[in-house]
Batch of 2 targets.
Target 1
Amino acid sequence: MIDFTLAPADIALRDRTRAFVREHIIPYEQDARLSSHGPSDALRVELNSLARDAGLLAPHVSPHYGGLGLSHVQRAIVFEAAGYSMLGPIAMHCAAPDEGNMHMLELVANEAQKEQYLRPLATAQVRSCFAMTEPKPGAGADPGQLATRADKQGDHYVINGEKWLITGAENAGFTIIMARAFDGAQELGPTMFFARLPQAGFRIERIMNTIDSSFTGGHGHIKIENLRVHQDDVIGEVGQGLKYAQIRLAPARLTHCMRWLGAAQRAHDIAAAYAAQRTGFGKPLIEHEGVGFMLADNEIAMHMCRLAILDVAWRLDKGEHARHESSMAKVFVSEQLYQVVDRCVQVLGGSGVTDVTVVEKIFKELRAFRIYDGPSEVHRWAIANRVSRKQTPRH
Ligand SMILES: Cc1cc2nc3c(=O)[nH]c(=O)nc-3n(C[C@H](O)[C@H](O)[C@H](O)COP(=O)(O)OP(=O)(O)OC[C@H]3O[C@@H](n4cnc5c(N)ncnc54)[C@H](O)[C@@H]3O)c2cc1C
């Protein structure tokens, strides 16, 4: 039987997260250490220490590595509360790409690698990045086009290639690189490697100017030149990189949905308060049906998004891969929340496109979400392929 009752402990944790974000984190939204390339590392470290003191650091990580060991359903509740400020997930160290990396490393890395890489990451001593996407003609929506190569030389691999849109590369303590491994002429397949940063072979050419601005370190364009990594720094097995990318991506795209739902709720609360207080044509704007209906549509959309997220989280907790459902949720939530915040901008009138409120910033962030962790069209294409495979031949 389906039961949506939350355990008292989960409600308490959600409420504690809400209070933490409202009282301690939102005041930092005007901090001078925020730039168009995200919060600085000094700010990130300060926020992490607040979350650590509040017992809210890395809640998704298992207690063995210092976290709270939350299930996916519990993450849905807590990450939404964290997302109410775009600095909440940064403070609680449950933002992309670190959160997805931690999740994958707990499942795939060996014990020595976990001590070396996961433990300092989980405790926020370092940040990390995930380097998969390449400029054309390399890997983008189609990871099969991976062009970065790792050539085996004795007990090392030498990696060469180019990556871009790599979130958090600047000042990261290590990176996970996806490259096509070769042993001489023999191709071994897409493989994930650790590399400590900074190092000369992983050169950040520039931080790209993007529509969004909430990720620490921005998004880097990287040249990888003769980067030597030891074979002990292969993550999991050689040739299994795409499989591990899937292990990382299905939950990672869902946690984006959770955090952005919190941000959209914030935009909606601001728009609803404005519409209740601002008058026009003899009454509060909210009493004009055109405005009231926009807010009603927001409530409907966010409720449906919350249910979609909880369904996938519940499936993941049961041990399902939930690829089909997480694809559907990613498309639905990213597109619905974009429309929610677009309506919030409209309700706020001219101030909606200014920095008088945080709504303008949330709107820009949500535009990018329709592209990363799989553009909507790629998910629809994958969903359509599954529909097609289910059909019995008619001739
Ligand atoms: C803010 C941001 C942060 C990111 N962070 C990271 C990161 O940390 N690490 C990392 O490795 N990557 C990162 N990315 C890259 C992201 O994963 C890619 O942008 C995404 O996979 C799409 O690849 P692409 O940009 O090369 O688009 P392309 O592959 O060139 O695709 C362009 C468009 O073509 C369409 N399309 C593609 N395939 C199909 C299809 N089969 N059917 C229909 N339409 C299709 C889609 O509309 C798509 O948007 C980030 C991107 C953004 C915007």
Target 2
Amino acid sequence: MPIRSDHNTHHHPVKLVILGRDGTINQYRDDHVKSIEELQPLPGALEAVARLNQAGWQVVMATNQPGIGRGLLDMASLNAIHIRLNQMLAEKGGRLSAAFFCPHTPEEGCDCRKPLPGLVLQIGERFGVDLATVHMVGASLGDLQTAQAAGCIPHLVRSERLGNLSEEQFAALAAQVPGTKVHTNLSAFAEGLIQQERRSKADARGDHAAQADSGPET
Ligand SMILES: [Zn+2]
């Protein structure tokens, strides 16, 4: 369990969302995204990042890229893919503040390959943020376990990366990490987070009319 620190929480705390890449913002490929041409944003995902940005959230990507360790792509190709992704985002009015990646294969035994928390801890340090306030969205059990290990708030989006899970199987997967919130896709996550923030601001003001309009708690 991380210890909550007062660092950076006095005035305008950093509002940070960490996203997995494959299956969360772009289409997952079994054989890794190796070139710009293979980058395929998921429907509505770019717009979701833009919505979050407009609501004051910084969005950072955290991704395992063992294809580098295996020699399937090099750093220059990976950088080009992430630059292209940011160009596509810019067209929708969004941006990623950073893309953190683990280039290692499982055999290398690093501490940054998800589900280990190393990559997320690096992000926490870079942005000076209390990880307990950070929402981490992923499309696999590994992402949820990463969020748990780093002390972030875990979110799971449905993705074909998980295969054709029934509702029960999807719920059972999410239940493996307590506190996980589930969403149809990144758009639904973004809308949910923005609404939740609106509600808690209304609560802080004691604005009961806004509460009454806000619908059931989820
Ligand atoms: Zn690593």
